[in-house]
Structures are given as C-alpha cells and as structure tokens.
C-alpha cells in the first residue's frame, strides 16, 4: 500500500518547458496562459523534440506531450522520461493505449481540455520522487475534470462502467468535502435547494481555491489496478459512511463511499486521517 504524498513541488515561475505536439496553433491558448504565469513554452513537433534530445539540447525544466503525437513516434515518451525532467501527458478520454504506456513510465497526466492551473500542478511534480515508474499521477480540481479523468482511467479496468462510477464518487468527495470544505449538513441543504452544483462552481472560482488540487494516482499491477485519491482537506472519519444505512439509502447524498465499495472497491483503505483513500480493482 502506498500513500500518495504530494507537497508544494518545485517553483515554476521563470522556468521554461517544451510543448510537444503536432499542431502549435491548437496549443496556443494554454501556452499563452502558462507564459502569463511566468512559464515560457517552446512549441516543438515530435521530430524536433527527438532531434534536440539526440543532440543533447534539452535545457528545460519540464515537458508537456500531446498524446496525439505518440502513435507516430513510439520512442519519444521513453526518451523524454529518461531525462528525469517532469513529463506531463496531455490526453483525450479515448487515449487508453497511451495512458497504459504513461502509467508504466510513471508520468503525470492531464485530460483535455487542459487548464493552465492543471498543467502547472502536474509540472510541479518532482521527477522520480512523487511520481514513480509504477504509476501515473493526475491533478484534478473541478467536476468536469472528475468526469473526464474517471472516464479515461476506468478504461484500464475490465469493468469500466462500475469503476468509473466508483472513482467519480470518491473524486467528487475529494473536491467538495476535502478541498472545498463542504460539510454533510451544508450539502444536504444545497441538494434540497437544487443549488449544490452552483455552490461548488462558485467555491472553485474563489482565488483561495484556484490552485487547490486533489490527486489521482493509478498503478497497474499484474492482477490488479490500484487507485489512490488524495485531497488537501482537514480529513474526516470514514467509518459512518462505509455502508448504507436505512436513512442514506434513499437520500441523494452521503452514499458515495458505500457506492464505491459496492460497485468496485470492496476493500477501501483510508489513510492520513481520511485525506487519502486507496481502492483496488481486479484486472
């Protein structure tokens, strides 16, 4: 069992990265946003990136790779990973084969459409420290990122529908209860008023929450998939929520952990006072 320890990571202001992709115009907006935050981006094709690597001209503190280039250049990801710099895969929800390769190499990942905040968070992961060769780590902070990321990684499972729902329940908990601090009673009030999603979106827009990410780590073992989710909250006691009781079984809240256990992760393990949860699914 591995706890997912994510610290502040490396500072990014004043640094430079490569952005490797087939279409520089398509990545102009996120690169511009990163540059506005002090992170200079050089757009390269896969061929230019390989040529620079072979010539020993890396000279950057991180690399973002659009996964769409990898089927045409299979060795690029491994060559970049061997440099030891933080490597971030930019993935579509259909990029399962590239995801599996990334998990094996221990990269960070972001699902399109990628925000500048998510890219910065992924690039802060120190190469070879928080990310290891046996898993991939993904930052997330919004409900949209929960939906796309859970859909992508659940595709590694033989029962993707069940795993996607289970992951989504746990990841939403990390966002709303962990990072945003919404308590059970407050959520009940918001759900009754039909205002839960609006309140979550409002809280996410607050400057204090702009860089407040949760993290999903995916590890592929010979017979199992391990998923670890960590948030930055105050923690909680999960014991009352492990099983459905008569009251919560008919309510639209307070059931996420029990649903995750029933659908995909019967042996959920909570770590660090409830701030990290590990679920295991068979392969």
Give the tags.
alpha/beta, Heat Shock Protein 90, 10 helices, 283 residues, 2 domains, Rossmann fold
Describe the structure.
This protein is an alpha/beta fold and 283 residues long. It has two domains: 15-127, Rossmann fold (3-Layer(aba) Sandwich), CATH 3.40.50; 149-282, Heat Shock Protein 90 (2-Layer Sandwich). It has ten helices and ten strands. The longest helix is centred in the middle third of the chain and has 20 residues, at 160-179. It is globular and about 65 Å long. The relative contact order is 0.12. The model is unreliable at 127-133 (pLDDT under 50).
Helix content: 25-40%
Hey, roughly how much beta strand do the residues contain?
15-25%
Count of β-strands: 10
The helix/strand series, from N terminus to C terminus, equals EHEHEHEHEHEHHHHEEHEE
Give the CATH class of the largest domain: Alpha Beta
Which oligomeric form is depicted? single chain
- Please give the alpha-carbon distance between the first and last residues: 17 Å
Please give the domain count. Answer: 2
Which CATH architecture of the largest domain?
2-Layer Sandwich
Mean pLDDT: 85
CATH domain fold name of the largest domain: Heat Shock Protein 90
Largest sheet: 5 strands, parallel
Protein name: ATP-binding protein
Domain Histidine kinase/HSP90-like ATPase: 159-264
Organism: Zoogloea dura
GO molecular function, one term: ATP binding
């Amino acid at each position: 069992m591995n706890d997912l320890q994510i610290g502040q990571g490396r500072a990014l202001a004043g640094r430079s990265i490569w952005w490797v992709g087939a279409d520089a115009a398509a990545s102009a907006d996120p690169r511009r946003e990163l540059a506005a935050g002090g992170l200079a981006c050089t757009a390269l094709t896969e061929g230019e990136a390989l040529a620079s690597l072979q010539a020993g001209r890396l000279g950057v503190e991180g690399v973002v790779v659009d996964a769409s280039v990898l089927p045409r250049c299979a060795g690029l990801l491994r060559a970049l990973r061997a440099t030891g710099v933080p490597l971030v895969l930019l993935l579509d929800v259909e990029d399962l084969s590239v995801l599996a390769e990334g998990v094996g190499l221990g990269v960070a990942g972001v699902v399109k459409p990628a925000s500048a905040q998510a890219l910065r968070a992924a690039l802060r992961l120190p190469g070879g420290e928080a990310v290891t060769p046996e898993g991939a780590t993904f930052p997330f902070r919004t409900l949209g990122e929960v939906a796309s990321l859970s859909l992508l990684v659940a595709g590694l499972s033989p029962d993707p529908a069940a795993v996607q729902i289970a992951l989504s329940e746990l990841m939403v908990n990390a966002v709303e209860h962990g990072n945003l601090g919404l308590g059970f009673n407050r959520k009940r009030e918001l759900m009754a008023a039909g205002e839960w999603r609006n309140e979550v979106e409002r809280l996410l827009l607050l400057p204090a929450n702009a860089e407040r990410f949760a993290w999903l780590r995916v590890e592929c073992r010979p017979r199992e998939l391990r998923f670890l989710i960590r948030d930055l909250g105050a923690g909680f006691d999960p014991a009352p929520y492990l099983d459905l009781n008569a009251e919560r079984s008919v309510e639209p809240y307070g059931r996420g952990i029990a649903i995750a256990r029933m659908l995909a992760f019967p042996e959920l393990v909570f770590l660090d006072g409830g701030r990290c949860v590990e679920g295991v699914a068979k392969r």
